[in-house]
Amino acid sequence: MKRTGEKILSWIGNVINILMVIVLGFAAISLSSLGGDFEQELMNELQNDPAVTGEDAQMAADMLGMMGSTFVGITWFAVIVMIVGTVLGIIGAIKITNNAKTAGILLLVAGGGMLLLTLGTTLIQSVLLIIAGIMCLARKPRVTVNNEPDPNSNPQP
């Protein structure tokens, strides 16, 4: 049975996922390398401001540093989740022709896991993988009895 729709949806979802992994990976690397320099520049600017006391400047710099490191950690977590989802999605897309049930389960796990663990930020690619997984599980091949053609199909002249 041809499963062109499932293949197309799963590969589009995987390509979008790969692009997002690349973008988020570069963003996480950039953010982690900027951390110390940005915090030092902020501390210098706050110390030069006469309206801000030394304690307030230190507290603001510490809070910004903590928020920055938390954001970098969350970004790396999202990258790891998306890499795992991409691997499962690619395996599922490859298995569609041979074993549609296994492929559907893999695609559903990849899409649902990414959607839940990234709190919906992977919405587009997750929905594409979930739809492809549901189509793999829902579509059944036509059954023939005693090698007779299906009566519902159009007869060939």
TrEMBL record:
Top-level taxon: Bacteria
Transmembrane segments: 12-34, 71-94, 106-135
Protein name as it appears in the record: Membrane protein SpoIIM required for sporulation
Keywords: Membrane, Transmembrane, Transmembrane helix
Residue intervals of the DUF4064 domain: 2-115
Organism per entry: Geomicrobium sediminis
InterPro entries registered for this protein in UniProt: DUF4064 (IPR025273)
